[in-house]
Amino acid sequence: MDFSGIGSFGSCLDDFSGKYMSPCSCMYHGVDWSNDFSNGNPRFYATSDGGYPSNIVITMAMTEDGSKFLLELLSSKDSRVSNLIFSRVFEFIFELMIHQFGRYLFQQLIVSVDEIRLQMIMEKLTVAENHVYHASVHKYGNFSVKKLITALKRSPLITYVIKALSNKFEELMTDPTGQYVILECLDVLDSRTNDLLYVRAMEGCLELSRHERGVVSMNAFIARIKGPRLDQLLNWICDNVRFLAQDPTGNYVVQCVIGLENPAINDRIFSLLEGLYVKLSMAKAGSHLVEQCLRLSGMNRVISEFIGSDQLVFVVKDRYGNYVVQTALKESKKRDARIHASLIVKLEERLDCLRHGYGRNIRTLFKSLQ
To answer: What residue spans do the Pumilio repeats cover (predicted)?
Structure first.
């Protein structure tokens, strides 16, 4: 094979084909390499089965050995090499980024080409169709998009990615694969770059919080959001806390926010939940929320509601509520003797009713604390 007509790139191909993909063993034996790389226009060649489906470079990129071969060529850091490979794969860039082996070439190519070619790639992936979204929910494409985010984090071209993701924000946040692309943005990019994603999170928070998978993504989002948008999002959750606290999945968002231990936000939440503590204590998710309140600065509000309620006996005998009352007794014992004593007096009034069922747990703990 003679590549002398294309200078150093030809020499590079000669070196690699002799060491790595010799004509005797190469799956591409018989291909006219010099014609393929002699100009910027993709040419198509017959495959061994007589078909004419593919450009040789994209065909190579879709195989394990071929992808490694092209990656070694790119490692030369010769712009002529990267530009020629780019010219061959550009029309197939989406197919490349979601392919098991092709994705490696895509990931290396985006850090090898210049800004002009990067812009061409971004326009190809976003203008006519949202290929960034489709790649994000693909098991291989997901890795390509995350690499793209890292590669573009200091480039104005990152706006292409952010806009594409924000347009499909709720779909990505509820997808088991796509959610990680959103979280990658939060981990890698600054708050100003992510602002559009922050806005979409506030717009979709209620629906996402009620979604079995979306609530997990939303909690991860809340843990990562930075800047003034964090306060806006937390206050929005406060505005809806009574609804979220009573929702089987939304409840976990409230727990996440309380876990941030923001004094002003938590005080507002604990105040807004007054009147619901008894009811929440007898629900599976709600009981965890009330226990969390008891372990933080909401303890006095919760216990005060218990003491003033004629429903406490039902909480004590409930499969979930009895654990809440146990936590109330333990926490108040450690932190506030006065309110602990008031709770003890309230429980003593119904001690005889706690001989059976879950009430026995309280009776046993009650005696051990005396």
So the answer is: 88-123, 232-271, 305-346
